[in-house]
C-alpha cells in the first residue's frame, strides 16, 4: 500500500490503474480510523479492484469555534488499518495541497443543508461538498463509500452527485457501534469515563424511538417526544436537536407515511455527538 501527499501522485496512480482496466473505489475520511471506517473500506475492497482512502481533516468544514485543532490524528495507526483491510493507496494531503492561497470556488447546496446539523453548523456542508467534489475530481472513482452515521451528509452527497452529474455511484453503509450501542466516532476519544457512560443515552433513546415506530406509531410528534424524554433523563446530556424528517427531502414530518430519518445531536460535556436510525 502506498501513502501519497500530492494530487499529482494520486492522478498518476489512478491513470495507471485505469489503463489496466481496474475499477477504483474511494473512501473519504478525516482519519483516526475505527471499525466504522473499516466497514466502509471492507465494502469498497469487496466491490472494487483498487481502493483509495483519503485521510484529510478538512479545515473548510469546521466552524471557527469547532474542534479543528484538537481533532485526533494518527496516520501510522490509520495506515496499518488501511493496509490490513486491503486498501491500495492512502491520499493524505496537507491543507495547502488542497487549498491554494487564491482558492475561491465552492460547492454549495440550497436544499438539505439548512436543517439538522446545518442549523448549528452553518458552513459545514459547503465545506463537505467542496472537499468531496475535489476528491471526486482528483481520484475519479467508480464508487464512493459513505456511512449512514452521518445520514445528512450521505443525503447531501447523493443529491450533489445527481445535480452535478459526477457519474460516481454512492454507496451508503450501516452504522457500526460499540458493543454497548454507542455509535463509533473519532470524537468518542474526547469523552472521559463519566461522559462515555452518559453518551449511551443517545443509542438508548433511539432504540426506544425505533421500537415505537416499529410497533406502528404514525405520529412523528410522539416519536420525537419518546426520544427526547429518554435523552433528558440523562443529566449530562444537552440536546442540540431531535428531528423526525422525510429521508428523501430531510423536511420535518408530522405523520410517518414513507421512509423517515430519526436524527439526534446531543452534547455530552463539550463533545457534540450525533446518531440516527432510518425506517425505510
Ligand atoms: P469521518 O472520518 O468522521 O469524516 O468519517 C468518514 C466516513 O466514515 C463518513 O462517511 C462517515 O459517515 C463514516 N463513519 C464514521 N463513523 C461511522 C460508523 N460508526 N459507522 C459507519 N460509518 C461511519
Strand order of the largest sheet: 1-4-3-2-5-6
Q: What is the approximate shape?
A: globular
User: What percent of the residues sit in helical stretches (DSSP H or I)?
Assistant: 25-40%
Structural domains: how many:
2
- Which class do the helix and strand fractions yield? alpha/beta
Number of strands: 9
Strand fraction equals 15-25%
Give the number of helices.
10
Detail the topology: elements first, then pairings.
Layout: E1 2-4, H1 7-19, E2 24-29, H2 35-47, E3 50-55, H3 75-85, E4 89-91, H4 95-98, H5 117-120, H6 124-139, E5 143-147, H7 151-163, E6 169-173, H8 193-198, H9 200-214, H10 220-232, E7 237-246, E8 260-268, E9 271-279
Parallel strand pairs: 1-4, 2-3, 2-5, 3-4, 5-6
Antiparallel strand pairs: 7-8, 8-9
The structure holds adenosine monophosphate.
Descriptive tags:
Pantoate--beta-alanine Ligase, Chain: A,domain 2; 280 residues; 3-stranded antiparallel beta sheet; 2 domains; Rossmann fold
Describe the model.
The chain has 280 residues and is α/β, with parallel strands linked by helices. The protein folds into two domains: 2-173, HUPs (Rossmann fold); 186-279, Pantoate-beta-alanine ligase, C-terminal domain (Pantoate--beta-alanine Ligase, Chain: A,domain 2, 2-Layer Sandwich). Helices cover 39% and strands 20% of the residues. It has ten helices and nine strands. The protein has helices spanning 7-19, 35-47, 75-85, 95-98, 117-120, 124-139, 151-163, 193-198, 200-214, 220-232, and strands at residues 2-4, 24-29, 50-55, 89-91, 143-147, 169-173, 237-246, 260-268, 271-279. A six-stranded parallel beta sheet has the order 1-4-3-2-5-6, sandwiched between helices. β8 and β9 form a beta hairpin. The longest helix is centred in the middle third of the chain and has 16 residues, at 124-139. The radius of gyration is 19 Å and the shape is globular. The chain starts with a strand and ends with a strand. The mean pLDDT is 98. It binds adenosine monophosphate.
Amino acid at each position: 500500500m502506498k501513502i501519497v501527499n500530492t494530487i499529482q501522485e494520486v492522478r498518476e496512480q489512478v491513470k495507471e490503474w485505469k489503463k489496466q482496466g481496474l475499477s477504483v473505489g474511494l473512501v473519504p475520511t478525516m482519519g483516526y480510523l475505527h471499525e466504522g471506517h473499516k466497514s466502509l473500506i471492507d465494502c469498497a475492497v469487496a466491490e472494487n479492484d483498487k481502493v483509495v482512502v483519503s485521510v484529510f481533516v478538512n479545515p473548510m468544514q469546521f466552524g471557527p469555534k469547532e474542534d479543528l485543532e484538537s481533532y485526533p490524528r494518527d496516520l501510522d495507526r490509520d495506515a496499518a488499518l488501511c493496509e490490513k483491510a486491503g486498501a491500495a493507496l492512502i491520499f493524505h494531503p496537507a491543507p495547502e495541497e488542497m487549498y491554494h492561497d487564491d482558492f475561491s470556488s465552492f460547492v454549495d447546496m440550497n436544499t438539505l443543508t439548512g436543517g439538522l446539523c446545518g442549523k448549528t453548523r452553518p458552513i459545514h456542508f459547503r465545506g463537505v461538498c467542496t472537499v468531496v467534489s475535489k476528491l471526486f475530481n482528483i481520484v475519479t472513482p467508480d464508487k464512493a463509500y459513505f456511512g449512514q452515521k452521518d445520514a445528512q451528509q450521505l443525503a447531501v452527497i447523493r443529491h450533489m452527485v445527481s445535480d452535478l452529474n459526477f457519474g460516481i455511484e454512492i454507496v451508503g453503509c450501516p452504522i457500526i457501534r460499540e458493543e454497548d450501542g454507542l455509535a463509533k466516532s473519532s470524537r468518542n476519544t474526547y469523552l472521559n469515563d463519566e461522559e462515555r457512560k452518559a453518551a449511551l443515552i443517545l443509542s438508548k433513546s433511539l432504540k426506544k424511538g425505533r421500537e415505537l415506530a416499529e410497533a406502528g406509531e404514525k405520529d412523528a410528534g410522539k416519536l420525537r417526544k419518546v426520544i427526547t424524554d429518554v435523552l433528558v433523563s440523562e443529566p449530562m446530556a444537552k440536546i442540540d436537536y431531535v428531528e423526525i424528517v422525510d429521508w428523501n427531502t430531510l423536511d420535518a414530518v408530522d405523520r410517518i407515511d414513507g421512509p423517515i430519518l430519526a436524527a439526534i445531536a446531543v452534547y455530552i460535556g463539550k463533545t457534540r455527538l450525533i446518531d440516527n436510525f432510518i425506517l425505510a
